[in-house]
Protein backbone atom coordinates (compact mmCIF):
# COMPACT_ATOMS: atom_id res chain seq x y z
CA UNK A 1 0.00 0.00 0.00
CA UNK A 2 1.61 3.24 -1.16
CA UNK A 3 1.69 6.38 0.95
CA UNK A 4 1.55 8.92 -1.88
CA UNK A 5 -0.50 9.51 -4.98
CA UNK A 6 -2.13 12.06 -7.24
CA UNK A 7 -5.82 11.76 -8.01
CA UNK A 8 -8.12 13.86 -10.16
CA UNK A 9 -11.85 14.12 -10.70
CA UNK A 10 -13.77 16.11 -13.31
CA UNK A 11 -16.39 18.78 -13.06
CA UNK A 12 -19.62 18.18 -14.91
CA UNK A 13 -22.14 19.74 -17.22
CA UNK A 14 -25.68 18.51 -16.92
CA UNK A 15 -27.18 18.12 -20.38
CA UNK A 16 -30.66 17.97 -18.90
CA UNK A 17 -32.37 16.99 -15.67
CA UNK A 18 -32.25 19.94 -13.28
CA UNK A 19 -33.60 19.75 -9.73
CA UNK A 20 -34.75 16.19 -10.37
CA UNK A 21 -32.00 14.41 -8.44
CA UNK A 22 -33.32 15.20 -4.96
CA UNK A 23 -36.76 14.17 -6.18
CA UNK A 24 -35.57 10.59 -6.93
CA UNK A 25 -35.67 11.41 -10.62
CA UNK A 26 -33.47 11.11 -13.70
CA UNK A 27 -30.46 13.17 -14.78
CA UNK A 28 -28.18 13.15 -17.82
CA UNK A 29 -24.80 14.78 -17.15
CA UNK A 30 -21.40 14.49 -18.80
CA UNK A 31 -18.01 14.88 -17.16
CA UNK A 32 -15.76 17.73 -18.31
CA UNK A 33 -12.08 17.94 -19.14
CA UNK A 34 -11.87 20.56 -16.35
CA UNK A 35 -10.81 18.76 -13.19
CA UNK A 36 -9.68 19.04 -9.59
CA UNK A 37 -6.43 17.33 -8.66
CA UNK A 38 -5.46 16.20 -5.15
CA UNK A 39 -1.88 15.32 -4.27
CA UNK A 40 -2.10 13.10 -1.18
CA UNK A 41 0.40 11.79 1.36
CA UNK A 42 -0.68 9.43 4.14
CA UNK A 43 0.45 10.44 7.65
CA UNK A 44 0.79 8.36 10.80
CA UNK A 45 -0.06 11.05 13.36
CA UNK A 46 -3.80 11.43 12.70
CA UNK A 47 -3.43 15.01 11.42
CA UNK A 48 -5.31 16.27 8.37
CA UNK A 49 -3.43 19.08 6.65
CA UNK A 50 -5.05 20.78 3.66
CA UNK A 51 -3.69 23.38 1.26
CA UNK A 52 -4.76 24.77 -2.12
CA UNK A 53 -2.79 26.23 -5.01
CA UNK A 54 -5.72 28.58 -5.72
CA UNK A 55 -6.37 29.80 -2.17
CA UNK A 56 -3.75 30.93 0.31
CA UNK A 57 -3.30 29.47 3.77
CA UNK A 58 -3.42 25.99 5.24
CA UNK A 59 -6.04 24.24 7.35
CA UNK A 60 -4.82 21.66 9.85
CA UNK A 61 -6.53 19.63 12.58
CA UNK A 62 -6.80 16.14 14.00
CA UNK A 63 -9.13 13.79 12.13
CA UNK A 64 -10.52 12.82 15.54
CA UNK A 65 -11.77 16.41 15.95
CA UNK A 66 -13.67 16.53 12.67
CA UNK A 67 -17.32 17.47 12.98
CA UNK A 68 -19.68 19.76 11.06
CA UNK A 69 -18.87 23.41 11.66
CA UNK A 70 -15.20 23.13 12.60
CA UNK A 71 -13.90 23.67 9.05
CA UNK A 72 -15.23 26.31 6.64
CA UNK A 73 -14.58 27.44 3.09
CA UNK A 74 -13.09 25.19 0.42
CA UNK A 75 -11.40 22.97 3.03
CA UNK A 76 -14.79 21.89 4.38
CA UNK A 77 -15.41 19.88 1.21
CA UNK A 78 -12.14 18.00 1.76
CA UNK A 79 -12.49 17.54 5.51
CA UNK A 80 -16.13 16.57 5.07
CA UNK A 81 -15.19 13.56 2.96
CA UNK A 82 -12.76 12.30 5.60
CA UNK A 83 -15.41 12.87 8.28
CA UNK A 84 -18.11 11.07 6.26
CA UNK A 85 -15.84 8.08 5.64
CA UNK A 86 -15.00 7.82 9.33
CA UNK A 87 -18.67 8.19 10.26
CA UNK A 88 -19.37 5.25 7.93
CA UNK A 89 -16.87 3.15 9.87
CA UNK A 90 -13.86 3.35 7.57
CA UNK A 91 -10.50 3.81 9.34
CA UNK A 92 -9.19 6.94 7.61
CA UNK A 93 -6.17 8.43 9.33
CA UNK A 94 -4.10 11.55 8.76
CA UNK A 95 -3.19 13.02 5.37
CA UNK A 96 -1.41 15.89 3.72
CA UNK A 97 -3.65 17.00 0.84
CA UNK A 98 -2.69 19.62 -1.73
CA UNK A 99 -5.50 20.73 -4.03
CA UNK A 100 -5.17 22.16 -7.52
CA UNK A 101 -7.77 22.50 -10.24
CA UNK A 102 -9.18 23.96 -13.42
CA UNK A 103 -12.92 23.77 -12.65
CA UNK A 104 -14.08 27.40 -12.28
CA UNK A 105 -15.55 27.78 -8.77
CA UNK A 106 -19.00 29.27 -8.60
CA UNK A 107 -19.79 28.52 -12.26
CA UNK A 108 -22.22 25.67 -11.66
CA UNK A 109 -19.77 23.07 -13.01
CA UNK A 110 -19.56 21.16 -9.72
CA UNK A 111 -16.10 22.12 -8.57
CA UNK A 112 -17.20 21.03 -5.09
CA UNK A 113 -18.19 17.52 -6.23
CA UNK A 114 -14.94 17.21 -8.18
CA UNK A 115 -13.01 18.15 -5.05
CA UNK A 116 -14.99 15.69 -2.94
CA UNK A 117 -14.60 12.89 -5.48
CA UNK A 118 -10.85 13.34 -5.91
CA UNK A 119 -10.44 13.44 -2.13
CA UNK A 120 -12.58 10.34 -1.62
CA UNK A 121 -10.62 8.36 -4.21
CA UNK A 122 -7.29 9.53 -2.78
CA UNK A 123 -7.86 8.79 0.88
CA UNK A 124 -9.61 5.44 0.35
CA UNK A 125 -7.09 4.07 -2.12
CA UNK A 126 -4.09 5.17 -0.06
CA UNK A 127 -5.75 3.72 3.07
CA UNK A 128 -6.27 0.37 1.37
CA UNK A 129 -10.08 0.71 1.48
CA UNK A 130 -11.93 -0.63 -1.57
CA UNK A 131 -15.35 0.95 -2.06
CA UNK A 132 -17.71 0.79 -5.01
CA UNK A 133 -17.83 4.14 -6.76
CA UNK A 134 -21.55 4.43 -6.13
CA UNK A 135 -20.79 4.18 -2.43
CA UNK A 136 -18.06 6.81 -2.82
CA UNK A 137 -20.65 9.08 -4.41
CA UNK A 138 -22.95 8.61 -1.42
CA UNK A 139 -20.07 9.40 0.95
CA UNK A 140 -19.23 12.57 -1.00
CA UNK A 141 -22.87 13.63 -1.03
CA UNK A 142 -23.12 13.13 2.72
CA UNK A 143 -20.03 15.30 3.18
CA UNK A 144 -21.67 18.13 1.24
CA UNK A 145 -25.09 17.71 2.87
CA UNK A 146 -24.13 17.26 6.50
CA UNK A 147 -20.62 18.68 6.86
CA UNK A 148 -20.73 21.63 4.45
CA UNK A 149 -24.47 22.22 4.76
CA UNK A 150 -25.50 22.21 1.08
CA UNK A 151 -28.60 20.03 0.50
CA UNK A 152 -27.48 18.79 -2.94
CA UNK A 153 -28.61 15.59 -4.61
CA UNK A 154 -26.24 12.87 -5.76
CA UNK A 155 -25.94 13.75 -9.44
CA UNK A 156 -22.73 15.77 -9.30
CA UNK A 157 -20.71 13.25 -7.33
CA UNK A 158 -22.01 10.39 -9.48
CA UNK A 159 -21.04 12.18 -12.70
CA UNK A 160 -17.57 12.93 -11.37
CA UNK A 161 -16.94 9.33 -10.30
CA UNK A 162 -18.86 7.24 -12.86
CA UNK A 163 -18.73 9.07 -16.22
CA UNK A 164 -17.26 7.58 -19.40
CA UNK A 165 -15.47 9.44 -22.17
CA UNK A 166 -17.72 10.35 -25.14
CA UNK A 167 -20.81 9.22 -23.21
CA UNK A 168 -23.57 10.86 -21.20
CA UNK A 169 -24.48 9.28 -17.88
CA UNK A 170 -28.17 8.47 -17.49
CA UNK A 171 -28.60 8.15 -13.73
CA UNK A 172 -31.66 7.00 -11.85
CA UNK A 173 -31.08 8.84 -8.60
CA UNK A 174 -33.43 6.55 -6.67
CA UNK A 175 -31.70 3.26 -7.48
CA UNK A 176 -28.33 4.67 -8.66
CA UNK A 177 -28.73 2.52 -11.78
CA UNK A 178 -26.64 4.00 -14.60
CA UNK A 179 -26.54 3.72 -18.36
CA UNK A 180 -23.68 5.14 -20.40
CA UNK A 181 -25.21 6.53 -23.59
CA UNK A 182 -22.97 7.54 -26.52
CA UNK A 183 -22.71 11.32 -26.79
CA UNK A 184 -20.27 12.68 -29.35
CA UNK A 185 -21.77 15.80 -30.95
CA UNK A 186 -18.60 16.51 -32.95
CA UNK A 187 -19.15 13.30 -34.90
CA UNK A 188 -22.53 14.72 -35.92
CA UNK A 189 -21.11 18.09 -36.96
CA UNK A 190 -22.28 19.75 -33.75
CA UNK A 191 -20.68 21.34 -30.71
CA UNK A 192 -21.73 21.58 -27.09
CA UNK A 193 -21.06 25.22 -26.27
CA UNK A 194 -20.67 26.21 -22.62
CA UNK A 195 -21.05 29.85 -21.58
CA UNK A 196 -19.89 30.89 -18.12
CA UNK A 197 -22.05 33.94 -17.46
CA UNK A 198 -19.89 34.99 -14.49
CA UNK A 199 -23.07 35.49 -12.48
CA UNK A 200 -22.06 34.09 -9.07
CA UNK A 201 -23.45 30.63 -8.34
CA UNK A 202 -24.07 30.27 -4.61
CA UNK A 203 -26.04 27.23 -3.47
CA UNK A 204 -25.34 27.68 0.22
CA UNK A 205 -27.74 30.61 0.13
CA UNK A 206 -31.34 29.81 0.98
CA UNK A 207 -33.04 29.63 -2.42
CA UNK A 208 -31.79 26.16 -3.40
CA UNK A 209 -32.83 24.74 -0.04
CA UNK A 210 -36.20 26.46 -0.38
CA UNK A 211 -36.87 24.74 -3.72
CA UNK A 212 -35.98 21.42 -2.18
CA UNK A 213 -38.37 22.04 0.72
CA UNK A 214 -41.13 22.95 -1.74
CA UNK A 215 -40.69 19.66 -3.57
CA UNK A 216 -40.64 17.54 -0.44
CA UNK A 217 -43.70 19.33 0.93
CA UNK A 218 -45.56 18.77 -2.35
CA UNK A 219 -44.71 15.06 -2.34
CA UNK A 220 -45.96 14.80 1.23
CA UNK A 221 -49.25 16.50 0.38
CA UNK A 222 -49.70 14.35 -2.71
CA UNK A 223 -49.03 11.14 -0.79
CA UNK A 224 -46.07 9.99 -2.89
CA UNK A 225 -42.57 9.04 -1.79
CA UNK A 226 -41.07 11.59 -4.19
CA UNK A 227 -42.20 13.73 -7.10
CA UNK A 228 -40.62 11.17 -9.42
CA UNK A 229 -43.69 8.99 -8.71
CA UNK A 230 -46.18 11.59 -9.95
CA UNK A 231 -47.69 11.48 -13.43
CA UNK A 232 -49.71 14.31 -14.95
CA UNK A 233 -50.77 17.69 -13.57
CA UNK A 234 -50.67 18.10 -9.79
CA UNK A 235 -53.99 18.67 -8.04
CA UNK A 236 -55.09 19.97 -4.65
CA UNK A 237 -51.83 21.74 -3.85
CA UNK A 238 -51.10 25.25 -2.57
CA UNK A 239 -50.80 27.53 -5.60
CA UNK A 240 -47.08 28.14 -5.00
CA UNK A 241 -46.24 24.44 -5.23
CA UNK A 242 -48.04 23.66 -8.50
CA UNK A 243 -45.37 25.10 -10.84
CA UNK A 244 -42.60 23.48 -8.80
CA UNK A 245 -44.19 20.07 -9.30
CA UNK A 246 -44.94 20.78 -12.96
CA UNK A 247 -41.25 21.44 -13.58
CA UNK A 248 -40.05 18.23 -11.92
CA UNK A 249 -42.59 16.03 -13.71
CA UNK A 250 -41.86 17.65 -17.05
CA UNK A 251 -38.09 17.59 -16.57
CA UNK A 252 -38.04 13.88 -15.81
CA UNK A 253 -39.97 13.25 -19.02
CA UNK A 254 -37.53 15.45 -20.99
CA UNK A 255 -34.51 13.56 -19.63
CA UNK A 256 -35.92 10.23 -20.77
CA UNK A 257 -36.83 11.66 -24.17
CA UNK A 258 -33.32 13.03 -24.69
CA UNK A 259 -31.88 9.65 -23.67
CA UNK A 260 -34.08 7.95 -26.28
CA UNK A 261 -32.91 10.38 -28.98
CA UNK A 262 -29.25 9.84 -28.13
CA UNK A 263 -29.63 6.06 -28.18
CA UNK A 264 -31.09 6.41 -31.67
CA UNK A 265 -28.26 8.68 -32.80
CA UNK A 266 -30.63 11.62 -33.29
CA UNK A 267 -28.59 14.21 -31.44
CA UNK A 268 -29.77 17.00 -33.79
CA UNK A 269 -33.27 16.65 -32.33
CA UNK A 270 -32.23 17.24 -28.71
CA UNK A 271 -32.13 21.05 -28.94
CA UNK A 272 -35.83 21.91 -28.43
CA UNK A 273 -35.90 19.82 -25.25
CA UNK A 274 -32.96 21.78 -23.85
CA UNK A 275 -34.81 25.03 -24.53
CA UNK A 276 -38.03 23.68 -22.97
CA UNK A 277 -36.02 22.77 -19.87
CA UNK A 278 -34.73 26.34 -19.58
CA UNK A 279 -38.20 27.81 -19.97
CA UNK A 280 -39.49 25.55 -17.21
CA UNK A 281 -36.59 26.44 -14.91
CA UNK A 282 -37.24 30.12 -15.60
CA UNK A 283 -41.02 30.19 -15.33
CA UNK A 284 -42.02 27.29 -13.07
CA UNK A 285 -39.00 26.71 -10.85
CA UNK A 286 -37.79 30.32 -10.85
CA UNK A 287 -34.08 29.59 -10.54
CA UNK A 288 -32.67 31.60 -13.45
CA UNK A 289 -31.19 35.08 -13.26
CA UNK A 290 -31.10 37.77 -15.97
CA UNK A 291 -27.62 36.79 -17.20
CA UNK A 292 -28.74 33.21 -17.83
CA UNK A 293 -31.89 34.30 -19.66
CA UNK A 294 -30.04 36.82 -21.81
CA UNK A 295 -27.43 34.23 -22.76
CA UNK A 296 -30.07 31.69 -23.78
CA UNK A 297 -31.98 34.30 -25.78
CA UNK A 298 -28.82 35.41 -27.61
CA UNK A 299 -27.81 31.84 -28.42
CA UNK A 300 -31.22 30.94 -29.81
CA UNK A 301 -31.37 34.15 -31.85
CA UNK A 302 -27.98 33.27 -33.37
CA UNK A 303 -29.29 29.85 -34.44
CA UNK A 304 -28.45 27.48 -31.61
CA UNK A 305 -30.47 24.26 -31.84
CA UNK A 306 -31.26 24.58 -28.14
CA UNK A 307 -29.94 26.23 -24.98
CA UNK A 308 -30.53 26.07 -21.25
CA UNK A 309 -29.06 27.02 -17.91
CA UNK A 310 -27.20 24.13 -16.31
CA UNK A 311 -26.65 23.43 -12.63
CA UNK A 312 -28.67 24.55 -9.68
CA UNK A 313 -29.37 28.00 -11.07
CA UNK A 314 -29.12 31.49 -9.53
CA UNK A 315 -26.03 32.07 -11.68
CA UNK A 316 -23.45 29.87 -13.35
CA UNK A 317 -23.39 28.50 -16.87
CA UNK A 318 -25.53 28.00 -19.95
CA UNK A 319 -25.10 25.05 -22.30
CA UNK A 320 -26.13 25.10 -25.95
CA UNK A 321 -26.18 22.59 -28.78
CA UNK A 322 -24.96 24.39 -31.91
CA UNK A 323 -23.73 23.59 -35.39
CA UNK A 324 -19.97 23.23 -35.06
CA UNK A 325 -19.40 25.91 -37.70
CA UNK A 326 -21.58 28.34 -35.74
CA UNK A 327 -19.95 27.97 -32.31
CA UNK A 328 -17.79 31.10 -32.60
CA UNK A 329 -20.68 33.24 -33.84
CA UNK A 330 -22.92 32.00 -31.01
CA UNK A 331 -20.28 32.81 -28.41
CA UNK A 332 -19.79 36.27 -29.95
CA UNK A 333 -23.55 36.88 -29.84
CA UNK A 334 -23.58 36.27 -26.09
CA UNK A 335 -20.62 38.59 -25.54
CA UNK A 336 -22.36 41.31 -27.54
CA UNK A 337 -25.63 40.87 -25.63
CA UNK A 338 -23.81 41.01 -22.30
CA UNK A 339 -21.95 44.17 -23.30
CA UNK A 340 -25.27 45.75 -24.20
CA UNK A 341 -26.69 44.95 -20.77
CA UNK A 342 -23.57 46.02 -18.88
CA UNK A 343 -22.89 42.49 -17.61
CA UNK A 344 -19.46 41.05 -16.86
CA UNK A 345 -17.82 39.65 -19.99
CA UNK A 346 -18.68 35.93 -20.24
CA UNK A 347 -16.32 33.11 -21.15
CA UNK A 348 -17.20 30.36 -23.64
CA UNK A 349 -15.73 27.05 -24.73
CA UNK A 350 -16.82 23.82 -26.38
CA UNK A 351 -17.08 20.77 -24.15
CA UNK A 352 -16.54 17.10 -24.83
CA UNK A 353 -17.60 14.25 -22.57
CA UNK A 354 -14.66 13.14 -20.42
CA UNK A 355 -14.05 10.15 -18.16
CA UNK A 356 -14.54 9.98 -14.42
CA UNK A 357 -12.18 10.24 -11.45
CA UNK A 358 -8.85 8.43 -11.67
CA UNK A 359 -5.41 8.07 -10.23
CA UNK A 360 -2.87 10.08 -12.20
CA UNK A 361 0.35 8.40 -13.25
CA UNK A 362 2.92 11.14 -13.31
CA UNK A 363 6.06 10.93 -15.48
CA UNK A 364 9.28 10.24 -13.56
CA UNK A 365 11.19 13.30 -12.41
UniProtKB/TrEMBL annotation:
Its EC number is 2.7.1.6. Gene3D superfamilies: 3.30.230.10, GHMP kinase, C-terminal domain. ATP binds at residues 52, 106-112. Residues 77-162 form the GHMP kinase N-terminal domain. It comes from the Bacteria. Residues 5-38 form the Galactokinase N-terminal domain. It is found in: Cytoplasm. Pathway: Carbohydrate metabolism; galactose metabolism. GO terms for molecular function: galactokinase activity. The keyword Zinc does not apply. InterPro entries: Galactokinase, Galactokinase_bac, Galactokinase_CS, GalKase_N, GHMP_kinase_C_dom, GHMP_kinase_C_sf, GHMP_kinase_N_dom, GHMP_knse_ATP-bd_CS. Substrate binds at residues 18-21, 208. Belongs to the GHMP kinase family. GalK subfamily. PANTHER family: GALACTOKINASE-RELATED (PTHR10457:SF7), MEVALONATE KINASE/GALACTOKINASE (PTHR10457). This is Galactokinase. It comes from Saccharothrix lopnurensis. The gene is galK.
